[in-house]
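so i finally got all the pieces together for this one. its four components total, 690 residues if u count the protein bits. some of the lines might not be protein, just check the labels. i wanna see the whole assembly predicted at once instead of chain by chain like last time, that was a mess tbh
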Amino acid sequence: MSDITSLLDIRKMRILQAIVDDYIMTAAPVGSRTVSKRSDMGLSPATIRNEMSDLTELGFLEQPHTSAGRIPSEKAYRLYVNHMMDQAKLTDDEAEYIKHHLDTRVHEVGEVIRQTAKVLSDMTNYTSMVLVPQLSGMKVKRISLIPVSEGSAMAVVVTNTGVTKNSMISIPESLTPEDIEKISKLITEKLDGHRLTEAIESVLPAIRAEVGEQADAVCEMLEDIERSMSETDVEVVGASNILDYPEYSDAQKARSFLAEIETGSYLQQVLKDSSDVEMSVRIGTDNDSPDLKDCSVITVTYKAGGKNIGSMGVVGPTRMDYGKVMAVLKYLSNSLSDILSKLLK
Amino acid sequence: MSDITSLLDIRKMRILQAIVDDYIMTAAPVGSRTVSKRSDMGLSPATIRNEMSDLTELGFLEQPHTSAGRIPSEKAYRLYVNHMMDQAKLTDDEAEYIKHHLDTRVHEVGEVIRQTAKVLSDMTNYTSMVLVPQLSGMKVKRISLIPVSEGSAMAVVVTNTGVTKNSMISIPESLTPEDIEKISKLITEKLDGHRLTEAIESVLPAIRAEVGEQADAVCEMLEDIERSMSETDVEVVGASNILDYPEYSDAQKARSFLAEIETGSYLQQVLKDSSDVEMSVRIGTDNDSPDLKDCSVITVTYKAGGKNIGSMGVVGPTRMDYGKVMAVLKYLSNSLSDILSKLLK
DNA sequence: GTTAGCACTCAAGGGCGGAGAGTGCTAACA
DNA sequence: TGTTAGCACTCTCCGCCCTTGAGTGCTAAC
């Protein structure tokens, strides 16, 4: 990116910023008079109009119809987010609110994640989503197999950070509960300290040697475990918040937004894709999903023990309060990272 | 209930039924001419008007304004559901659809529940909810404790029917992983075949005797397990369907409906409360939640091995297609019961 | 370069009238 | 005595017109 002042002079920037700020608050097209009246502007409406005309030509503003004010284009939001947003800081009350509601006495990761999603949605009044910590990349401490019925067992994977995940797997009917217990011990012993993803190839020979004829079955089980452990869960809260915004007062539009949220697959993909960039912002058509073409999605990552282990984000109308959302996300990312770092030892 | 023909003669019944049927399809007030035109009616609009006037006086019909048709009151819906609904039967296509989408090859209870909820919502186009099988009342086959970090462990309860549930519990820091394993074996041995709910008092003395000084800690752990096992989970699908109905085109109304669904606590309560009646119907203000006062909730139970183990239901506008919904619910209840009975051996 | 002034555009909202759906009453009919 | 035709009446809905007001773009003057 070249220096943006070569693209837009300072005055245009200030005017554009004023328009975006105003539009974010009111959702109504902004006129030249409104901008001119801002105490720090000191220019007549006529001058503003000339500048607005230029900004429209440059693609930063759009006009719903001739005699309406202007609304920001996606291009304007991108510029706004990157170069001219007031990076809001949380008020003391807000910080206090987070501290108070992220109950650090809770000892279960899932519960902490749910609380985080709730707080995120409540504070922003948009839809929030939090990816539960990902096992991939963590080291396995223990894998327990619990016989449930003939043909099925529950696999519980515990990582060295204390993150757990469990799933039902099918097992060969030939295996007795005792066999399962033996295998459970064996694979824990062999896999201990390895990453689950890399474990199978590297550890299989050893296991194969020890379990003899049932090696194939065990091998399949391990693959089954790996497969189910790489599935991601995401906690989504506050989908109905979208109905608070006039952009979505049309039932049909709200319907397709909510349906997209409910399936969750796109959002899940976004969170996964963004799980290595500290903060990502997708504006409008940046989103592949047509149902979210009037939405923005902002995500941040969170860590435990200095390593990224998950991400969370907010979905709202493109006209969202970027400054506030980003501030809340940053703060929450730190809080959650702290809590998890302690919680997961 | 006394014989209803003493309350309403046959003709009034037929007219009321015609009105309810029509209103369910169109959501528009029904006039005398519309009713009269039905091929099986054979009465002039004027006659119908007289009867409608009576029905209004009796509280079965309401009039939005003088020159509009009539709409059914809650009282009418109750009568309709109890005495005059055409108990719809599923078409072959519909039965086929269910068979096809309830994939019996799936071996995990949770997955089956999710599929059921999806099918239920897709077929009715209302919001569906399915309670996951309840452990209470089942007999414990196995309780495994898996050490996760110092101070916490995962408890996995497996019942004799193969239903599982797991949760994190905190454990006294004094216990080593070996202790935990020992205790895990011990409680499985002692609790095996008992109901979890009744197990603790009856089994505690034996356990107390064997674990010696750590008895109190173990006791607390067991209570913790019991507490978390009695928590219920419910799968909700298709909340956004409500936006397809003109009654909820008002964003504010849709908002409060969706918020109520999202918290889920009321619906969960309804499902729990109804988990011993084969089919229950709550119409309008039967629902305690003010946000659901224009909704009806219909639930059925499902079984495994001849015993009720859970329930599911549908939430929609009071003007819902009761016949269809009840038919789908009945059919699905049987299907799910069959699948679970096989699945849980 | 900035601004005042002015003609022009367009959406939103209020008022009005007709159309249409539906009712309730009355009187006639079987 | 129950049923029906007829009719006056009531309301909502919809389209129409007009006004209002916000906002623009252009021009000419500062």
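Residues 43-47, 50, 64-68 of chain B lie near DNA strand D (CB under 10 Å from a C1').
Chain B is about 45% helix and 20% strand.
anyway lmk what u think
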